[in-house]
Structures are given as C-alpha cells and as structure tokens.
C-alpha cells in the first residue's frame, strides 16, 4: 500500500515525513486515533504530524483542533451504524482551509498525497 510517500514529490518539492505513514497506520489498523492533523513544515519542506486525537474524541473535538488562521490536512476515522445494524468505519482525507481564508494565498500542495489509493 503506497498511502504516503516519504520522499519529495518532483512536481512540488514537498515530501511527507516517515512518521506520517506510521501515525496513519495506527489510525487505520490499531484504531488508536480518531483523527490525525498534518501541517506543512516550511523549514523541512515536508508534511508532518501536528496533532492526533484519541479514539474516544468526537468530530467536534476534531473541528476544535483545527487552527483558525491556517490550512491543514487531516485524516478522520468516522464510525457509523448501517440500516442493517452493522458497525462500519470510513476514513476520510480532508484538505481544510477555514472560511475566510484564501487557500491560494497559502502553499497547500496536494502532490505529496498523490500516492494515496
């Protein structure tokens, strides 16, 4: 599975830190996190983990964790029950830029994430 690349993307020069993949796999397989928030480290020119939310945290906790004045990437593990009463989980990748911010004013390249399935 080539979810997150740990090397620079040729088109943006932006890479993804190795611990991003490990943290995502903890969310996906071990269910130790409800969400992971990623940010761009301007000095290292790579995407790094900014914050993780515990398995018991809610969507409101996730939304409150996003910064008011900056754009972020996030992965959220959403649990739900189907009409057939089956417990399911879906993982969402989110590129978030809060209302009032211009995403084009901020360098928010999606090219480091191109390897996602």
Automatic annotation (TrEMBL):
Record keywords: Actin-binding
Highest taxon of source: Eukaryota
Pfam families linked to this entry: Cofilin_ADF (PF00241)
Family to which this protein belongs: Belongs to the actin-binding proteins ADF family.
Any one Gene Ontology cellular component term annotated for this protein: actin cytoskeleton
Domain ADF-H span(s) in chain numbering: 13-117
GO BP: actin filament depolymerization
UniProt GO MF annotations: actin binding
Keyword presence, Cell division: no
Name of the protein: Actin-depolymerizing factor isoform X2
Gene: LOC103709840
